[in-house]
Design brief:
By secondary structure, the protein is an alpha+beta fold. The protein has a domain of 131 residues. The protein is built from five helices and seven strands. The relative contact order is 0.20.
């Protein structure tokens, strides 16, 4: 997918990316084929509408609808954003921003697992401290972003290793090796129980 500039109309509070305070990888039998998908806990202290959105989605008997778009925001060098536009059962737009070098594994898991969970929280919250807290599982379909992501991930991981003192060629090899390991890790699947039909 060739990058292109687009303007997205958002309200002032939706325009700011929502900070990730914690993350985890979750694999569940019968969900997305048991593939690992990331869970991100978002700081919703300034976004009570997200708390309400997750509450409504969790309580609704019908699955909600959400549109996704990957984007590089102007002035946010080294970051990739996932724009989530919820249209049912309630409307809201959430921008989740990932540092490519430091949080690229979350993007990789979302693309490989074809999904992502979001959960509302505050600083210090972890999945392990409250695993039953309401969360929303979203499908992250292939929207033609994979090729561009592979280029960005390689570029910024190489820059990261260069900043650690590696030569250009060693940094490139280290980035390729790290990405290869993530691909192998991302292929993990929770097997169905032996007695399931």
């Amino acid at each position: 997918m060739k990058p292109r500039k687009v303007n997205v109309r958002l309200s002032p509070h939706e325009r700011q990316p929502v900070r990730i305070v914690s993350d985890a990888a979750v694999s569940t039998r019968g969900v997305f084929g048991g593939r690992l998908v990331p869970l991100v806990i978002l700081d919703t202290s300034d976004r009570p509408d997200i708390d309400e959105l997750i509450r409504i989605h969790h309580a609704s008997p019908q699955p909600g609808d959400v549109k996704i778009q990957w984007a590089e925001l102007d002035g946010h060098e080294g970051y990739i954003s996932l724009i989530l536009t919820f249209v049912r059962p309630t409307e809201a737009t959430i921008i989740v921003e990932f540092n490519i070098a430091k949080q690229g594994i979350l993007v990789e898991q979302a693309l490989s697992g074809k999904g992502m969970y979001i959960q509302a929280g505050r600083d210090g919250d972890r999945l392990t401290t409250d695993p039953e807290r309401p969360k929303v599982l979203m499908e992250v379909p292939d929207v033609g972003f994979r090729k561009e992501w592979d280029r960005l991930f390689q570029k910024y991981l190489t820059k990261h290793f260069r900043s650690k003192g590696l030569s250009r060629s060693d940094a490139k090899r280290a980035a390729q090796s790290a990405i290869g390991e993530l691909h192998r890790f991302g292929s993990f699947r929770m097997r169905d129980s032996p007695d399931s039909k």
